[in-house]
Each structure stands twice: as C-alpha cells, then as structure tokens.
Amino acid sequence: MKDARKDTVLGHAGRSPRENHGIVNPPVYHCSTVLFPTLEDLEAGDQAPFDRINYGRIGTPTTLAFEQAIAELEGAYRAVNTGSGLNAIATALFAFTKTGDHVLITDSAYGPTRRFANDTLVPYGVEVEYFDPTIGAGITGLLKPNTSVVFLESPGSLTFEVQDVPAIAAAAKTVGATVMIDNTWATPLFFQPLQHGVDVSIHSATKYIVGHADAMLGVISCANEAQWLAVKKAATRTGTCAGPDDIYLGLRGLRTLAVRLKQHEASALALAEWLSKQPEVTRVLHPALPDCPGHELWKRDIGRSSGLFSIVMNAVPKPALSAMLNSLELFGMGYSWGGFESLILPARPAAVRTATRWTDPGTMLRLHAGLEDADDLIRDLDGAFARLRAAL
Ligand SMILES: *Cc1c(COP(=O)(O)O)cnc(C)c1O
Q: Which residue is catalytic, options 110, 130, 208, 248?
C-alpha cells in the first residue's frame, strides 16, 4: 500500500503469499549448491553474480526476503544480510576503507567496533581516530581529504549520548566520506538514518529484530546502488552469510517488532522513573529524559525509545554490588539485549574511551527492560536496592 505506516510495513514486507501457494510466510530455503541447466546459464551467472541466485553463500530467496523487508523499513536502495551485527559492522568498514585512509569513529561506539578498527584496520594501514559523540558540526575540524568513513552510533553504547546525525553527515559529505551508523538501539522502526543524510545503516538484528535471544543476525542498509554494490562485494569476499533458519527468525521477529517495542519502551520509562527516585542513583542515562546528553536531538530526530538504558549510582564497593545483583529473580545478568527478557549488567565506559574522558566515579549499570510486567520488574529492583543498602 502506498504511504503505509511502519507498523503496516512490518506485517507485509518481504513476503508474497500469492507466489507461495497462498501460504502467509515465505519458505525457508536450505541451500549450498544451485544447479544451472545449461553451460550458457552457468556462464551468465558469472557475468552478473548478484543478479541471480547462484550459490548459497551469496544469498537465497530467504535472504532476499529479509533484506527486502529491512530495506523497505529503512527507505534504503537495498540491504545486505550478515551472520551477526559485528559482522555487519566489519563488512561495512571493510567495504569503504583501504590503506592510507582516515576513519572517524564516535567515542561512544560499541566496544567490539573499536576492537575491529584498532586491531584489524590499523594494522592494515588505516588511520583510526575517535571523536566526542556530542561534537555535531564541529566534526568539520577533524575531517581530512582522505577521511573515507565517519562512523556514528546514536544513542551511544553504555552512555546513550544522542548525536547530531544530520549535522555530522552534512559535514562529512564535504570531503566525500561515507557516513555509517550503528542503528541497533532505535531499530528501523524508530529512526530512519538514510533520511537524515546517512549512507549506510547497520543493525545487530540479534537484538530487537530477532527479539527472542535465540539467533545471531546482522544487516546493512545502503542508500544507493553504488554503496550497496560495495557492501555486497565486501560481504561476498569475506564470505559472510547467516543460516536460513536464523534469517527466518529475523523475518518473523519483524512481524511483532512494533508491539514488542511499545512494551519495551513503556517499561523502560517506568523503570527509569522509579530508578531516578532512588537515593543511590545519581544519573539515569536514557535519551527520553531531559538530562541525557543530546535529549533535544533525540526529540527532534527519533522521538521514541527502546528498552535499553543505563544508570549511575554512587560508587558501590564490589561486595555490595554482588549482594545487589546476585539474587535478582527476574533480571538476568548477561551480554546482549533486545530479547523478551530483562537484563542488567555493570558497565565501565571509562575503560574504553580515548577521545573523551568518562570521569564519573560512580558505578554504572546497564538495564534492558524486557516484556515482563513493569511493576514486577520494579519489585525485583526494589529487592536489589534493599540488599545493596543492607550491605553498605
Ligand atoms: C550487540 C551489538 C552489536 C553486535 O551485534 P551481534 O549481533 O551481537 O554481533 C553491535 N552494535 C550494538 C550497538 C550492539 O549492542
């Protein structure tokens, strides 16, 4: 339907029952070898390798269905599916960098993004420089003629600074740099980076898109054909691909993304409000709260929020932190987020920053509000704070 809202697109993108016996969902293709009926067909496949299904690793109708749905949601030319979110980040960076290039990465980027840049791009002769996530148009002062990529993540991992995406993108264009963003937090539903000047939008689909903590998946959306081709070639050269059943879980997750996010959003806001009233909590880092850095930008460009945010407490000694966290009934402790379940994790941004300094001496916790009842989650946290107080 023309001009359909995103919730509607989620239900219909990437499937065509009429071409599939009337069956609502697309089939899952398990595939390595694709057979060619004639030598001529085989050779034609070599001429235009991305125009046809010719080998499992390059993509199947299952891959294409997922890519098509994501591209439609993000307003992209096309998307490229990868085996994980980190794989999507690495593939996108590989696609647009070569020896001698200069790459700018936000200081608030996901830790493994930094590790890939520092430990893989740098040894290949790429100059990697980090910048203050709140820099905005000031990025101009860091741009060089050989800046090939400006990499954003908004809100930032752990610390949730919201970036001035349009201003940074406009500045980056003056030197011809490709602007990328890790858009995992906002999902394709809450923020469309390509409509704000970004060239390449990256998702860890492992998080909200799959949404059930049961598959690893990544995806890269590209604004135009040349960018898509560059990313597709990089993905093909490095051999990234996801298993068909995991891609199907991503496609299935999309169907309920809007309703799940509504609940994640409401519960996270309820938790954030309750937490902000606890005497031990000094800051709540949630883009929808006025004291979060970049809150005005969040209001202007995003306006909705998902279930992930952080709090800072007065510095808590280790034994008291253990007492607080070790007996939670509903919150699990573990990496990742975006599933139906609530999570909590200590975080130490000071350890990874280089362009800016994280000087707050308090203890940071990152929380993910799952789909449990928010009052039950608050009761679980209430117990945790009681144990904390008893241990101090
Ligand atoms: C988890 C995460 C990734 C990596 O995704 P995987 O699918 O786990 O590889 C990338 N960016 C952000 C912001 C993440 O939280």
A: 110
Name which CATH class applies to 6-255. Answer: alpha beta
Residue type, 19: E
Q: What's the one-letter identity of residue 7?
A: D
**Residue 88 CA, ligand 1 centroid: distance in Å:** 9
pTM for this prediction: 0.97
Q: How far apart are CA 252 and CA 340, in angstroms?
A: 14
Active site (annotated) includes residue 57? yes
- CA distance linking residue 6 with residue 186, whole number of Å: 13
Protein residues with CB under 6 Å of any ligand 1 atom: 84-86, 110, 157, 182, 184, 204, 206-207, 216, 218, 336
Low-confidence ranges of the chain (pLDDT < 70): none
Q: Which atom of ligand 1 is nearest to the CA of 87?
A: 9
The predicted structure's pLDDT at residue 298: 98
- Respond yes or no: is residue 182 known to be catalytic: yes
Q: Which CATH superfamily is domain 258-391 in?
A: Aspartate Aminotransferase, domain 1 (3.90.1150.10)
* pLDDT tens digit sequence for 349-373: 999 999 999 999 999 999 999 999 9
Sketch the domain layout of the chain as residue ranges: 6-255, 258-391
